[in-house]
Design brief:
single chain; 452 residues; alpha+beta; 8-stranded antiparallel beta sheet; 50% helix
Length: 452
């Protein structure tokens, strides 16, 4: 039996309550926070902005949302031709159906490896504005949030931070979980008026208890977008025969650009769109009443049908309908309920992650979770600086002659396999400790590592 040791109260969770496992997990919690706190703060801020993507897009399109109509609309073919004329040699990539009768017509064109959204007045054919699809504010926020504006390298860093954040939250729940609490103070609500030390301890513990489940959900539901985890997930599905014919989400901006480029190249190479007019296609597409925004894409050499696709962020309401090129009649319909159960689970997770599964409450919940994560990061930093001695990092003291049990070792291996970037980082940390830090006593002392 472990002997209890009485010590002074600290800002941290541990008060020498005994147990090598408890003390080991405290050190893991500290180092995990050291790695990921700056990135978690960044992801919380940028993610909160991204939650309001529909409102942001509507605000930027406010100047073309309500137009003065003449009552003499032109044909859809004339609108497409006007859009294509803005870039000679371009091809039609899609038509975005207007959600209101007074909105500008929006046509997607492709050329020179890029997509452009052209806003056309539906009566006068005036080009109201053009927008490079890869340089919208929404795409900028996406790259800030998921790639740190660094492409695939940034995606790797974000995945590393997210993986360690999962470790931080799980170890934090174990450390701070009430064992011998007297009442709900310091567990479900902070105890006020008892000094700064207890205030910061309670803020960290209480917010952690309330926000951890939601934070874990956001971290796990974001993994399908991650570069390493997402590609590994796709490979596992291919090996097990559960892969989707067309995955409903992209892993990186590069992946998304390649997908659009392949589609646009095939569309441009497909001469003609069959016997049916664009007027008929658009009329039939509107009659389907799919969840907005709805994009109509032309036939390609590989897939010679018109596709009417709901691009709603609430993915369970999405439907894709194929229309025949010769008659415009419906020939195929793909619904969310027909997808593989894995795609349905991921789709629901993505919709909730983006705040659109049950908006606007979903958006509010996402913002509250982000604020909770920021509070955890700030309170952790304050407690660390209050406790850290001068001249060292301030890590929890190492455990003399500590041995990792088989259970904990197996848990570490499982976590490394489920979170490949975490596993890679653990191997690198082990290699640096064995190859460099064991020969550098002063660095080991500063980092709070056990002497060799």
């Amino acid at each position: 039996m472990t002997k209890a040791v009485e010590t002074r109260e600290t800002d941290g969770p541990i008060q020498e309550r005994g147990g090598a496992l408890y003390r080991t997990l405290w050190r893991w919690h500290f180092y995990a926070g050291l790695i990921c706190i700056p990135f978690v703060t960044w992801l919380a801020v940028t993610g909160s902005v991204y939650l309001f993507r529909p409102q942001i897009e509507a605000w930027f399109d406010r100047d073309v949302a309500v137009l003065e109509r003449t009552g003499q609309p032109v044909t859809q073919q004339e609108i497409v031709d006007a859009a294509l004329a803005t870039r000679p040699g371009s091809s039609l990539a899609g038509i975005v159906l207007p959600e209101q009768p007074d909105q500008a017509a929006r046509v997607l064109i492709s050329g020179d490896g890029a997509r452009t959204r052209v806003y056309v007045h539906p009566d006068t054919l005036e080009i109201l504005k053009t927008q490079d699809e890869s340089n919208t504010l929404e795409r900028a926020i996406f790259r800030l949030h998921g790639e740190l504006m660094m492409g695939e390298g940034g995606s790797f860093v974000v995945e590393l931070a997210a993986s360690w954040a999962i470790v931080m939250i799980l170890t934090g729940l174990y450390l701070w979980w009430p064992r011998n609490a007297r009442g709900l103070g310091g567990v479900l609500y902070p105890r006020l008026g008892q000094g700064a030390k207890k205030f910061w301890r309670d803020i960290h513990a209480v917010v952690g208890i309330w926000v951890s489940v939601f934070a874990l959900f956001l971290l796990v539901s974001g993994l399908p977008w991650a570069m390493v985890w997402g590609n590994a997930f796709k490979n596992v599905r291919a090996w097990t025969g559960t892969a989707a014919i067309s995955q409903d989400w992209t892993i990186s901006s590069k992946d998304e650009h390649a997908m659009h480029a392949a589609h646009d190249a095939e569309s441009g190479a497909h001469l003609g769109h069959g016997g049916v007019s664009i007027e008929t296609i658009i009329a039939n597409a509107r009659a389907l009443n799919l969840a907005a925004p709805v994009i109509v894409t032309p036939p390609t050499a590989r897939d010679p049908v018109w596709w009417v696709k709901s691009n709603a962020q609430n993915r369970p309401v999405r439907e894709d309908v194929a229309l025949a090129t010769d008659t415009g009649a419906e020939v195929r319909r793909d619904t969310f309920g027909e997808k593989h159960i894995i795609d349905q689970i991921v789709g629901v997770g993505i919709a909730a992650h983006e705040g659109q599964l049950f908006a606007p409450l979903n958006q509010v919940l996402g913002v509250l979770t982000a604020l909770g994560l920021i509070t955890l990061c700030v309170s952790a930093f304050v407690m660390w600086r209050r406790r850290a001695p001068e001249g060292v990092l301030g890590a929890p003291p190492p455990i003399p002659d500590a041995r990792v049990g088989w259970g904990l070792a197996a848990l570490i291996v499982v976590c490394g396999l489920l979170l490949p970037v975490l596993g890679i980082s653990l191997l690198l940390i082990g290699a640096v400790e064995w190859g460099v830090l064991r020969r550098w006593p002063s660095a080991r002392q500063w980092l709070g590592m056990a002497p060799t």
